[in-house]
Amino acid sequence: MTELRQLSSSDLANLHSQLIAEYGNFKARNLKLDMTRGKPAASQLDLANGLSVALTASDYKSDDGADARNYGGLDGLPEMKQIFGEMLSAPAANVVVGGNSSLQIMHDTVVRALLHGVPGGNGPWLSQKPKFLCPVPGYDRHFAVCQHHGIEMINIPMSDEGPELDVILPLVAADASIKGIWCVPKYSNPTGVTYTDRVVEGLAKMPTAAPDFRIFWDNAYVVHDLYDTTSPLANILDACRLADNENRPLVFGSTSKISFAGAGIAAMASSPVNVADARKHLAFQTIGPDKLNQLRHVRFFKNLAGIKLHMQKHSAVIRPKFEAVAAIFEKELGALGVARWTQPRGGYFVSLDTDAGCASRVVNLADEAGVKLTSAGATFPLGKDPDDRNIRIAPTLPPLEQVELAMQVVTLCVKLAAVERLTKS
Amino acid sequence: MTELRQLSSSDLANLHSQLIAEYGNFKARNLKLDMTRGKPAASQLDLANGLSVALTASDYKSDDGADARNYGGLDGLPEMKQIFGEMLSAPAANVVVGGNSSLQIMHDTVVRALLHGVPGGNGPWLSQKPKFLCPVPGYDRHFAVCQHHGIEMINIPMSDEGPELDVILPLVAADASIKGIWCVPKYSNPTGVTYTDRVVEGLAKMPTAAPDFRIFWDNAYVVHDLYDTTSPLANILDACRLADNENRPLVFGSTSKISFAGAGIAAMASSPVNVADARKHLAFQTIGPDKLNQLRHVRFFKNLAGIKLHMQKHSAVIRPKFEAVAAIFEKELGALGVARWTQPRGGYFVSLDTDAGCASRVVNLADEAGVKLTSAGATFPLGKDPDDRNIRIAPTLPPLEQVELAMQVVTLCVKLAAVERLTKS
Fold first, then answer.
1. Counting C-beta atoms within 10 Å of the first and last residue's C-beta, which end of chain A has fewer, N or C?
2. Within a 10 A sphere around the Cβ of A92, how many other Cβ atoms?
3. d(Cα B315, Cα A38) in Å, to the nearest integer?
4. How far is the C-alpha of A405 from the C-alpha of A25, rounded, in Å?
5. ipTM for this prediction
């Protein structure tokens, strides 16, 4: 098959008829497939069912003798800090363990900065018309935090190395109201890109007009390899410290896609100054996190090695789904020149780029054929993809055969939308 | 023994010498007793150890078929809402279940109001110089939330019926910047007072200059009776709805002092409008609460009747401690006319009022003799008791014999401080 844009108009018309017929066949099947959510499958959650019985009735003491059932321990059990320290490449002393949601820790960190400012800054961000840099495509819920609180967002294009430093550097050097950047540095959501050393170092070193610029480093997929070899990521905490910007990075992580998505443990790691600041605020915010669930995780996983072993079981479940997406995309779209997609080596998503102006049409076509996709534009601030090009594919939740069927529909819709567009132009 | 203020100065001098000798004896014992914290004792926590094994490895489905391990369910499992609905006297549909900390729900509710306002209001409270009414003595962590966020606090005296309506009514009628009041309506912290129907109705009905006035109704001790008969509390949600102020009350509760203090479940109940508003914000704040811990609580307690049965076991543990405090206070101070104290029928505290100007001296004297008490003033906004009179006694955590010994020391210190003061004046 040749590239679609090289077809004559009569060939395009013939192809269109053929695609419409295929599309009609799919519609007639009354499919109900949901590819919208980056949720683990039940079979992944089953891997951690031992967590629910990891504690006996008399097992509630932490290593330091604290009673995990009672109040106290604002920033987590020592042994849980240890595990997150290993996972996020930080000293355990610089870890603050939270509840079950790293999004909540990130949200609350933004809110604290809005209301109270951060160490080294000029007071509350709220009065400084704060702006955030948003590498795109990116994680919708990061952007939603900014939108909800009236923080202006600036799109930063992603390359295969991470966010474009050439775009970032002049912006942060010139504008003191740019206070932060959202990063998913490893197996980025949705592109799967892991930031290169050059990008990590660039972010750590770059001069910023804001004295209180913060990198929100959401290391959500730090141990989420699909293959035996990992994509190495430089340590942002070390890089920033070496660049005399020790307080710049705020590193977030969780076990949500390791243990239980809704009942895991989340944490933040940062500089001693930022960690002390977080602790100070937390004393007003809460009585402290659920330490028994921490102990449950400690007993079940034991250490980072235990987590890594566990993640191999996850990859055995989800790798076939990712490979099915890649295989079907390659087979159906490989030669047509109307789409590009990522083949991630970890994380939770495949990023599909259609021709410009086609993404929302593809999502609508798929929806009409019974396949729900994440809304076009969802990976951009305010839900607006300026090129209407990006679609996030989330293959983990449905069973393999549903993923395969859904991708048949999606690739058909990509072809159909492309032919429609080529016919018009 | 006669009242101390009727003693002659030579009798006072003799008594002083005698008290100093007794005080010296206590000091020589090198006591280390901690009466500061309103924490449950280990023997209370033991009552709920079955919680840790309440789920089997395959028990993770809620009644509505949702997988409690996965994402989803922003406001809690239906069966957990049902239990909190019964506990807080609200329809289950008007309950939002949160994490393990009702303080966190209250804090976040205040922050949301500061940044975004509340339904029926004129926008963010932050720009309206908000003030809160603070019944005193009260709960230090309520006041700390206000202090931390720059909310001005106005002391409202507590009577045996609840906060003084005569003081409240003219204030809220005149000042639109008064946005809220902190209430612990049942077995109030620290006085043990349960608000009378007249007070509940008064708060529900009173005209307020602020269209968005909110009652923060922290029903922390709703099932925390020390005796078989409870102190009835009128339903603030009903009272406000009947008074056409349906959106005024925000009701909070938790199982912190029912199951595990640090690993329980917290919730809010309010009007449909307020609940919808909370849900809207929560979608930006978090991926949702830990539903497995909810399921654990549902399996262990089953319903409100199960919780009430469980609370009888708690009262069997802590009632002797409260009665020991009362007995020692009566024996040592009953005739002296230098202190008043509460004999609560529920809750977690005894409130001790010394003569004006003596509380901080008592706390210091006790500290020097090895008995740590909550700081004098802690029960007032900014930690300032204008009369230096109130001391919060927390008898639950230490074993009975330690409570008794500590109260011997405390009553001695009360006498000593009183004699010192009478000698000076």
1. C
2. 17
3. 46
4. 13
5. 0.96
